[in-house]
Design goal:
Layout (H helix, E strand, L loop, with lengths): L2 E2 L9 E5 L8 E6 L13 E5 L2 E7 L14 H10 L4 E10 L9 E2 L3 E5 L25 H13 L4 E2 L3 E5 L7 H9 L4 E3 L2 H10 L3 E11 L11 H25 L26
Helix pairs in contact: 2-5
Bound molecules: zinc ion.
The site of zinc ion has 7 residues, from helix 2.
Length: 279
């Protein structure tokens, strides 16, 4: 592999943040630059092709899964992708279900998020100076969500499109009482990485869409001992083929000019330069 700081053909790449099992997605992959004002990302992004489009892939937890959810360098990850010219991100995430109608293997495209994390660097406005309070009423890109839903239906994987993701601090799983509390609020799914990723993407003016795969029933729903790490990894592994097929279609169908308002935020001081010319 070689090192590069630009996508192969100069067009803005689609960003994919995900986990293991997705490395092999890209053809002709090169390693992107890994230096950011916020330190190194979880891993240098891989830049390659998926079908006809340039894609930058970044494994959220690192290639060897060394970053626990509260230790993921979210700011460096988002900054690194933005620096490569990425405008749209599709973020794959394993989630627990808080609803009895959402079984293991369900595909959820959340439209809302609740942040119950703490102590994580969660903003690029981290020093005195001008601050922008970016809009976050609708945390996810409406265009990206529509593209994912259409692609999923086309492969016979009916998505759930009205769902709230609650993000907990981890790394432990929720207690039954916590889980029941989350469900009682009307929230649908739970994970440990959905924030601050979505908020940081918005601060950078990136389109951001979560593709959530239900890997377990959260403690308030499940029986026995509750959620285990092994359950989550095994369930995600079983879904990975479908996720890869979905991403291939999503990347192909995502419009180069989304036409949404995700990018309508003030530039962050010292933020990466705007993406290069469109292909
Ligand atoms: Zn958007």
């Amino acid at each position: 592999m070689t090192t590069t700081d630009a996508p192969p053909d100069g067009s803005p790449p689609i960003g994919i943040i995900g986990g293991s099992g997705l490395y092999e997605l890209l053809s002709d992959a090169e390693t992107g630059r890994a230096d950011t004002p916020y330190g190194p990302p979880s891993e240098p992004p891989l830049i390659g092709r998926l079908g006809s489009r340039a894609v930058a892939f970044l494994p959220r937890h690192g290639r060897d899964h060394r970053f626990a959810p509260h230790l993921v360098p979210y700011r460096a990850n988002l900054w690194a992708l933005r620096s490569l010219g990425v405008r749209q991100i599709f973020a794959v995430a394993a989630v627990g279900s808080l609803r009895s109608d959402l079984g293991v293997g369900s595909l959820v495209i959340p439209d809302q998020v609740v942040d119950r994390t703490y102590g994580r660097p969660h903003t690029f406005y981290d020093r005195p100076g001008r601050v922008a309070h970016v809009p976050f009423a609708d945390p996810y890109c409406p265009v990206g969500r529509r593209v994912v839903a259409q692609a999923a239906r086309a492969q016979g994987w009916e998505p759930v499109e009205s769902a709230t993701l609650v993000v907990v601090q981890g790394p432990r799983f929720s207690s039954r009482a916590e889980s029941r509390f989350h469900a009682a609020q009307g929230w649908s799914i739970v994970n440990m990485t959905g924030q601050p990723e979505a908020g940081l993407a918005r601060e950078l003016g990136l389109c951001y869409t979560t593709i959530a795969i239900v890997t377990d029933l959260d403690a308030g729903l499940g029986e026995g001992e509750g959620v285990t790490e092994a359950d989550v990894f095994q369930a995600f592994e079983r879904s990975i083929a479908r996720v890869r097929t979905l991403l291939a279609t999503v990347v192909e169908e995502a419009p180069v000019e989304p036409g949404c308002s995700c990018a309508d935020v003030p530039p962050i001081p010292d933020s990466p330069p705007p993406p290069g010319p469109l292909s």
